[in-house]
Amino acid sequence: MTFRASLSVPFGLALGLGLCLGVAALVAGPEPAVAAPRQKLVCPKTLEEPGAFADAAEHARYAACLRQAQARRARAAKRKQDGKPAEAAAAAAAAAAAEASPREATGNTRPGGRDFAAADQAMAAIPGIPDARFWGDSEADYMRVLGGVGGDWLALSAGGEDSGFGAGLLTGLSESGRRPDYAVVTGVSSGALLSPFVFLGSSRDAEMRDNFMALNAAEVFEDRRTPESLLDTWPLREFIARRITRELIDAVAAEHRRGRRLIVITANLDIARPVAWNMGAIAAAGTEASAKLFRDVLVASSAIPGLFPPMMIEAEAGGKRIQEMHVDGGLAATIYAAPDSMLLAGATQPLPMKSLTIVVNGKLQSSFAVTDRSLVGVLGRSLSVGVKRGSRSTAVLAAAAARRSGVPFNIAFVDQDFDYPSRGMFDAAYMKALFESGVKQGRSAAPFRSGVPGAAEGPDAAARARTGATTEGAAAQAGDTTAR
């Protein structure tokens, strides 16, 4: 299966993911028929987050101890809340069982729901929220939902832990007083996790920073296989449940009613197409089910296939409930500004925004690095190369489409000379340094470039690339441009 035209843009990412999963299958081997006996877990009385992990075994021990501590707290809370001996004993037994048993894999909902055909998928909708989503590769759907919004648009790319750059850049723009009130914000993968806070504006900068700084490997995954992945992301699911509060979701709904739009991209593996989730419409539904869907979409957008488990999302087709399989939106596009068909040279539909700004959470080019001969080393390097190639390709096409449409274009990315060392996955010191680098760039007189360095963008492209010409962002260029 292929993603129609959508695969053409992020080919580097698709290649990177293919390499990752192929290596993972070869190195990890088949799931053993009988699990090896578990060693007794010994945890310290006080569990302190290390910030970075020496190896996968250390991370696994920390994650297991964290679960154990959470189970103890749950039992204590139950005992305090309910003084009845029988109910307290039952609660304690349930907590102990949860501690002893493997957690439910991320994305599991209920048995069944996987018996459906292409015709069912084509008509499937989210029960009670008919405008919850549209096909991300459909020009007609895109224009119907976003064509009349106008204003300044911001696209946040994929990037994993490098998304600290985007968080810092937007914070720096706020501090400089030059941050636009973006009418549309789109997010892919880790960019999707930032997107609700960015969408809500400068007042959420401190919350965004605190959430980002609180993120570490133990808050993202447990080093344990599921039937569908090498790692289990129940910690990320719980992290999002804690951080994406009902108050935040209600605030997104209020902005949606004002006419602004927040879009998050996932990839539907069943029909092999990108899905654009209208997060404000989901938030505006105002139910517990819609709040759960809001959070599930964020988890799904970061579900790297094969590495992390997919998210199963329930939809309805002709009165029948089905479970769709959704994974990382980066499989379709590491950046989302418009359907691929609108970015290509032969496109006839102009882009509808007043200005387009892309924040690339990472560098645009890979640097030399001797890859570690380990599963994690090969996976990490392959993903990094794929994401950078995909992001650069999409940015080049988006810049060209913006130029043809008469839309001012801005792009920011991690400086190629940034070389702060990372000691492991989600290393706190590395992420802080990257965040501070973004803040510094956001405060600067010229936080954005007006084109992708080295890309052919017209007669003056070579001169711009040599001089490194920049712009002060959407606010600086938008003044002479009529809103579409």
TrEMBL record:
This is Patatin-like phospholipase family protein. PROSITE patterns: PNPLA (PS51635). The active site is at S189 (nucleophile), D328 (proton acceptor). Residues 91-100, 453-484 have a biased composition (Low complexity). Residues 154-341 form the PNPLA domain. InterPro entries: Acyl_Trfase/lysoPLipase (IPR016035), PNPLA_dom (IPR002641). It comes from the Bacteria. The keyword Lipid metabolism applies. A motif (GXSXG) lies at residues 187-191. It comes from Rhodoplanes tepidamans (Rhodoplanes cryptolactis). Keywords: Hydrolase, Lipid degradation, Lipid metabolism. The keyword Lyase does not apply. A motif (DGA/G) lies at residues 328-330. Residues 91-114, 444-484 are annotated as: Disordered.
